Every structure is written in C-alpha cells, then in structure tokens.
Amino acid sequence: MPPSILFNSRRISSIDPTYIVAEIGVNHNGNISLAHKLIDSAKDAGADAVKFQTYVTDELVIRNTRTAKYQKENALFDDQYTMLEKYELSFESFHELYRHCAAAGIDFLSTPFDPVSLRFIANLKPVAIKWASGELTNKMLLDQAAKTRLPIILSTGMSRINDVDDAITWIGRNTPLVVLQCVSNYPAAMSDQNLRVLPFLENRYQCPVGFSDHTQGFQCAIAAKGLGMSVLEKHFTLDRNLDGPDHKASVDFTGLKELVSEVRSIEVALGNGVKLPAPSELDAKTVARKSLFYARSLKAGHIITKNDLAAKRPSFGIPPSEYEAFLGKQLKIDSVKDVALSYEDFE
User: 15-270 maps to which CATH number?
Assistant: First the structure.
C-alpha cells in the first residue's frame, strides 16, 4: 500500500480520489464579497477545498521590498508592502469565510505567512495547514507549525532536495505530511515542472505527494496523477482578466470544473493495479483468442504430431497453450479437419 495520511476522516493517498484544492490565494483582490463568490464557485466546480493566504503585511515584509517580475507585470506593483496591504483580509473576515466553507460543505485552508497568522489559522482547526514555498526555509515558523500537530501540505518551489530534507526534519515525524512539487512562477512553463520527482519524493519521505500546478492547461495535472499525485492545488479566479498577481495563472469556473472532471476520469482509468480482463473485453475475448483444432482429417490410431494441430478462432475449446499435452497421444476416433480437439478423443 502507498503511504497515506488523514484529513479528518478522509484518507489521502495516491490510490484514493485526489484532494483538489482551489487556490484562491489573493484572487479576492481584498474584497470579502468576491471571496464569498469564489468559495461558492469552487464548490460548484467540484473542488474539495479552497485555500486562502493569511498574513499581516507588517509582519510579513519590510517596506520598499520589490515585487517579483510576474507580480509587477500582472499586478502593476513595484513594492510588495503596498501590494500585500491592498489584498490583506482581516482575521474577522477569515472567520466569516471559514463559516461559509463549513456551511457550503467545502474544506477551508489557508497559508499563514507570519507567527500571528499561523496561530490564528491553527485555532480554526482546519484539516491541514498549507505551507508556502517561500516559507520552506523559515525554521522559526515551521517549528511553530509542528507544535500544532495539524497535517501540513508542504510546497517545495525554489528548493533543492537538501532544503526539503531540512524542512521535514524540523517538522518532525509526528506531523502528518503531504509534499508538493511546485514551480514558483506564474504561469510556469511545462518544461520546468520536473514531474518525475513525484515518485522520488514519495519514496524518500514515505508520505503522500502532490502537485501545486502553476501551468496553463491541464496536461501537467493529468501527468502528475499518473505519477502518484494525492493532492492537486490549482489557482482559481472568477475572471482571468482581473488585475492582480495570480489571475492570469489561474483557471476560471469552467476551467476548474473541467479540470476536476478530467482528474476524476483519469482516476477511473488508473484502476486498481490488478491485471485482469475488463468485463467489456469478454465478448471480444471469445472471438479473438483461439482454440486447438485438427489441422487435417485423421484416422483412429494416429499418433498426434505438432503438424496435426492448428490454433484457430474462436476460443470456446482447449487453449493453444496446452498443445504439448497432446503430442504423442493416440487417437481413438476418426477426426475431421477444423473440428475442435476434445480430451475424450484420445486413448
């Protein structure tokens, strides 16, 4: 069995339905009304959870810190402090969003970026804490997170394997863990995804793995499922043309619904790993496989050789795999070409 953990009573593993997270992040643009609409839309699209970002700007970043290239291009901000302050939601707003998720039947997740926000999120008792790639090397915050004993979904963008090793050592083995492959660019190129690392991560850390997908399209998410993905995170928006750092790298309602449908279809296609004929094949099996027939008419007393036998369709009789059992046997009846062999034909 592959490694597994629990989000409350739900088992998370590569052979269970993928836990699909609609990453709202800051795509609410600081508007609580838009955040509520995003929750309902994600639920309607079939996501298992929504995920926000919780922070106190003054605890997260110093003033005059430049934005990343993609943030500047997509959100038109030069300064992180100003950008983050615009998108910051109050703790009371997150209480409201948490209650909405509970009423709607979709899990609430959020990524905390500072000690105050982590304490607040942990007190909500979500099914897990989502950890940002940028905080992977923040031992101070990871030490605090480990003490909550909540499961952690650990994104690993911008990291070498020793960075991930260190983070997991700090978290400790008493914390249920999912490790996500991630490329921290928005949108991220397919050529950067390195999805073959998923089985490696699962084997190295003996925990479920997943994929934080910042690419455009569904191809990488589908490939990741075939490589053992247990959790999928995808940025989500109501309108990809809105101003903001992440909208352009997000899927809208139609895209998320289609992604969920595609992943669920792939899960069915992956099956259980046991090699058996599908019920739908049984009719074709009868006409496509072969039986043993007499290759020519023979008289009683004849000693059977390989040249006396033919493998032909259909497969209602003795399979060709047993032909050697008849070599050297003596016929006790006359046989006719293209009549199926029977065990009763022989002495």
Answer: 3.20.20.70
Please give the angle made by the CA atoms of 181, 269 and 39, to the nearest 5 degrees.
55
Mean pLDDT of the chain: 96
Instruction: Label residue 188 by pLDDT band (50, 70, 90).
Output: very high
Q: Is the dihedral of CA 306, 312, 315, 317 positive or negative?
A: negative
Give CA–CA dist 179/58, Å, rounded.
29
Compute φ and ψ for 301, nearest 5 degrees: 95, -10
Identify the H or E element spanning 108: strand 107-112
Domain positions in the chain are 15-270, 279-345
Contact 335, 298 (CB under 8 A): yes
pLDDT score of 77 more than 90:
no
CA pair distance 91, 54, nearest whole angstrom = 8
Whether the Cβ atoms of residue 300 and residue 334 lie closer than 8 Å to each other:
yes
CA 92/CA 119 separation, integer angstroms? 14
**Structure pTM?**
0.90
| Fold adopted by 279-345 | Type Iii Antifreeze Protein Isoform Hplc 12 (3.90.1210)
Please state the φ and ψ torsions of residue 136, each to the nearest 5 degrees. Answer: -60, -35
Radius of gyration of the chain (CA): 30
22 backbone dihedrals φ, ψ, rounded to 5°? -85, 105
Q: Where would I find the beta strands (DSSP E) of 56-186? A: 107-112, 129-131, 152-155, 177-182
State how far the Cα of 123 lies from the Cα of 268, in Å rounded to an integer. Answer: 37
Enumerate residues 6+ apart whose C-beta is below 8 A from 324: none
Which structure tokens are listed for 54?
């919780």
